[in-house]
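Model the whole thing, not chain by chain.
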Amino acid sequence: MSTTSPPQLTAEQLDALGRELDAIRERVTADLGERDAAYIRRMIKAQRGLEIGGRGLLELGFLPPAWLAGTAALSLSKILDNMEIGHNVMHGQYDWMNDRAVNGHAFEWDSACPSEQWRHSHNYMHHTHTNILGKDRDIGYGVLRMSEDQKWHPYYLGNPAYAVLLALLFQWGVALHDLEVEQLNTGKAKWSDKGEMLQAIWKKGRRQALKDYALFPLLAGPGAPFTFTGNMTANAVRNVWAFMIIFCGHFPEGTHEFTEEETEGESRGQWYVRQLLGSANLTGGKLFHIMSGNLSHQIEHHLFPDLPAHRYAELAVEVREICERYGLPYNAGPLHKQFGSVVKKIARLALPDRGGDEGPAVEPTPLPRRAKRPAREAVAA
Amino acid sequence: MDSVACAQVFTQTRQTLSRRLLGSTLAEALTTPHGVDRYVELVRPAFSLREVRAEVVAVRRPTARSVTLALRPNDNWQGFRAGQFVRLGIEIDGVRHTRTYSPASSAHVDDLLELTAHAQPDGAVSPFLRASARPGMVVSLSQAEGDFALPDEREILAAGGELLLISGGSGITPVMSMLRTLCHEGHRGPIAFLHYARDEHDVAYARQLEELAAGHANVRLLRGFSRRPDAGELHGRFGRKHVRAAGVDPTQALAFACGPTALVEAVRTTWAEDELDARLFVEQFAPPAPARVETDGVVAGSVRFARSGREAPSTGAPLLDQAEAAGLTPQSGCRMGICHTCTCRKLEGAVRDVRTGEISTAPDELIQICVNAPVGDVTLDI
């Protein structure tokens, strides 16, 4: 359960580790082809089929079985669209196919968040600066306290309540994520700087809402309320599911956080180790992996974010073996266990640190960054 | 109106109607964010509201090296002028490749397009098409491009009314299209068609050329074969005596030449000597020059940024750094090949992945400019 410090690898070991992981990456890159293309197209076909089927059934939503089946199909469609297709395609995992339909820059997903902003906040900020406090804004999404190193404040008494709200409205949380609203509070940025982004969010969000909450319900005529609630439920199911999977990626007990100082000028090997220590996997069957967008292989995803995700299951065998050899932890567990520990963490961190009894889950770092920064700036001024 | 015509009108009306519906604002709003195409193409791969796509309806293999595809383009195809080319996109082992081909069919046949590819021994696309093209395949197309094109009848008559069409090897396709188009239009002036090939078995349109020459008194066909000097009407390399043999007056004719560099240069020099440059139109069908690839050290060359029209000598650094040094501000993020923010289209040239040392020479491909350095000349779409 509780974390011990990871083994300190020598510079030579780190380089060797980096080379081994690079070699895996190169091998898979050279092997990309028809198999991967066929896989993502099969997923797209399944998603579009579920969507058409689900929306069709929800037009008859006044019949309870149709409402249930339609809502289920549309939920699955949105989950597939956002996770196994959207998230992975937007990582550029299929850019090598040279096909606009699966091009990372051209793809838009069935979510309120404009893909352009997602690519910045996720592909760049989160994947480059994974689990670095103060740099990786996925730690708590700027709303929650997810680490002891985030200073406690009475605001965080609401941690569990905010988490429930964030889960239910996750697509909107993600949509507002790249705005970096906390910068507005600290005066680092002004609302006027965010005009273009707000406009993009408004445009995308409006189109999404128009489709789900006006057009498809209106097409159902008197059955409109049933279509409306079906669509709303499907969005909520997708939101909660995505929240659960994503929060299991980096916040279960045993995942590590890092400071900016620690990670300054890190080598390729050190970058890999940070990705390894900062991520956690979910165990489960094939269908579970697909529905999680293969983010259940969060460790492999963070080592190789632009390799097609359906390959992670195969790579996991090798990565696990490498971790064992270097004495590095490989954090994996079933959803109920991993999410359970996330829930506990959300609840525990709502309260000020009690100091001692359980100990901080993160690797103890001698200097809390936040305390240090202002002092330094004061000197500079 | 008979029943067949009735059925045709009905089908057309239905098609126009469904296209109208699918192209409506409502359809777009209902299918946001993916758009109508992404749903319809799953059942009808050649359908698109905006993109040109075509279905292969027939495949012939006229010679040991060539393959001729008959394509039926979708409704977005705007037609072409004889001599122009299209960019054909085809997927091979999951990767879409784009190559240019000149249609060889008459420009007046607008529902069918004929392309002929000659398999280059080290090519990726043409050998694939030669081996694997089959009816039912769907390819993507661009609209027609290029200035090497047949003028309309009025301009031809104003220039004297005579035509001299010269081609070598695989360069036969655009001039074949010109000849077919002229015959289709009922052009009455003299047309001479000079074609150079290895031998008589290596001519993709051998039979069609003979038929056109036999069926049109004003068309004269002359062939020269480098490996079978006695088999054709022309002997040796292109020269003035071939023009004389063609029986066309170069001062009254418009001349079109397409083929390998040596042939095109010989034609160009002859016309230049007679100060008839304005009457000559040429296109070279040279295979792309292989990039000078070296494993270490900077390979001299320049980096061209096509969209912004800038160009700078290559420093050998990753292209993102070079773009920034040239005063451009392309999108970028991690600068270590993870986030794909900087991904952009490389139009041509060879690049080396600085992480793996791997070199890629494919035209028209997406690359991450933060981890790719140029090897020789490179053109980027930024």
